[in-house]
Amino acid sequence: MVCDDRPGIVHAVSGAVVAANGNITESQQFSSADTNTFFMRLQVMAPVDREAFEQALAPVVERYDARVQLDVVGRPLRTLVLVSKAGHCLNDLLYRQRGGQLPIEVPLVLSNHADLQELASFYSVPFEHRPVTDAASKHDMEQRILEAVDEHDIELVVLARYMQILSPGLCAALEGRAVNIHHSFLPGFKGANPYRQAHARGVKLIGATAHFVTSDLDEGPIIEQNVVRVDHTKDPAELVSIGQDEESRTLTQAVRWIAEDRVLLDGARTIIFR
User: Which positions ≥6 away from 184 have C-beta within 8 Å?
Assistant: First the structure.
């Protein structure tokens, strides 16, 4: 639930839950002083169907002019994964999906290279290869992404080391529904080859950043970040290997929070109810 902040919201929502004979099993809220916005996430057990629960909440929604999203806890989120050649993030997502550790359902993997077809097949996930070699083929690929979103009722698009910059039009179409993993601790070392940049600067920490996709490269609202300590003995190849573990961990955590409806947007930042 998101609305302008004012007194009485928690009391009103709690009263509506009680009126529906519901029991609140988890409750988190945050008031943003910067935007005067109130954010709330509830988990509720109620002996009524969704329509009846929506009706119970309707007076509160109207009174506070709130945006409310209702979902069933644990429902797998329909997820399209975009990849290129690196398979570590895809492998982690599909492994955890298959093991029931990640509440997503991946009906399709789309790629501009054929390298990861065998990996997707191992997890019995359909794989589609669309080469991107020029502006025309890039446009075709982006059209295919949008088609796949519609065909498969996609709720989240994950760029799991998809090494293509999305056009502003596609970014706008997927606003708030696409997450990217950047192999660096943003805002440092943006763009390509961040590990080589990090090695050249002699950094002592490397990391990864999962963020929402926007038309500004690597500038979207940050969802999750992780770092690991390194030293001068690590060459660029070792930094890549270490960093890939952080990328997988960071992206999977971000996807999990999104799938569990724990991520809310507050302008250029996110509110995460862990």
Answer: 190, 194, 195, 197, 198, 206, 207, 208, 209
